[in-house]
Specification:
By secondary structure, this protein is mostly helical. It has 16 helices and no strands.
Length: 301
């Protein structure tokens, strides 16, 4: 079916589009075993993420997220997270939210596994940065819908093409900000490390990465946020989750359904944003200090 569809598209496309269609057809003819292996790997990764998230009862996972927010952010964020997640449960959108979160985590993990080493190499090797930079520009400026076409052609529809399209869309920030963070390390720190006899690997591990960590974590945060922003678009090719809820609301002109799906996406986005932002710096207060602050606030009330 895919080959017949490509034959139609080749006849309709212009010279450049036709060349692109011929290239995809060649990939389908000679690279199918590779795509099957990638498909199995991504399905397994997404399945593991979803199984881990769906195993605890909803109330327990909501409590764990609230406690994590209390430890990393503050008490107010923990309370709001608990209220927001219970609102998702009340709207009967917990299972779609878990599917969306599993997709986001799988795509973000793959983006980080590729983007962080690539950013480190590009920061240390100018040639790699000169090759990588135009590709990142292309990935960031190309409309998100365009990513769906080759993903569907190579992997059909479902979770796998959704994750791959999300991976391509969300990877550039972590690469760019890793390069920026490493290049902004002060020269005096680099010279101090070399004077103590650090090798290049030790210099990277003990000087550059710790100094660049806040900037790198900003890239991680942006990657996760961009991955989440793709959920509605990915639902058009079978991504499922909350994006499917929003898409059904649009297709059926059901304002209430679309509003509930959008609200669940916003709740998930705020929680992921604040938690990932908190990882770049140590907590401003210890857990006992935060408990004391909440007790004092309770007594004043």
């Amino acid at each position: 079916m895919t080959h017949s569809l490509l034959a139609v598209l080749i006849g309709q496309a212009g010279p450049i589009g036709g060349a692109a269609n011929h290239f995809v057809s060649w990939l389908l003819s000679y690279g199918q075993p590779l795509f099957d292996a990638i498909n199995l790997f991504i399905l397994a990764l997404a399945g593991i993420c979803e199984k881990v998230l769906i195993t605890p009862p909803p109330w327990l996972l909501a409590l764990i997220v609230a406690l994590l927010g209390f430890w990393r952010v503050n008490g107010g964020f923990a309370v709001l997270s608990l209220i927001g997640l219970n609102l998702v449960i009340f709207m009967n959108l917990w299972t779609p939210m878990i599917s969306t979160l599993a997709l986001v985590l799988a795509a973000s993990l793959l983006a980080l596994l590729i983007g962080l080493p690539l950013g480190i190499l590009a920061a240390r090797q100018r040639l790699i940065w000169q090759i990588t930079r135009p590709l990142l520009d292309l990935m960031q400026t190309m409309p998100a819908f365009v990513y769906l076409i080759p993903a569907v052609m190579l992997f059909s529809t479902g979770a796998v093409p959704s994750i791959i399209a999300t991976l391509i869309f969300s990877m550039p920030p972590v690469v760019r900000l890793t390069v920026l963070g490493i290049r902004q390390v002060p020269n005096d720190l680099m010279e101090a490390g070399r004077s103590f006899g650090c090798s290049e690997l030790q210099l990277l591990r003990k000087v550059q990465l710790p100094s660049a960590l806040p900037t790198v974590m900003t890239g991680v945060n942006q990657t996760i946020m961009l991955a989440l922003s793709m959920v509605v678009i990915a639902s058009m090719i079978g991504g499922g989750g909350l994006g499917d809820v929003v898409l059904r609301g649009i297709q059926q002109l059901n304002i209430g359904l679309g509003f509930e799906g959008g609200m669940a996406v916003v709740i998930l986005a705020v929680i992921l944003d604040r938690l990932t932002q908190s990882l770049s710096t140590p907590p401003s207060e210890t857990v006992p200090e935060r408990l004391q602050d909440m007790l004092n606030l309770w007594r004043l009330g």
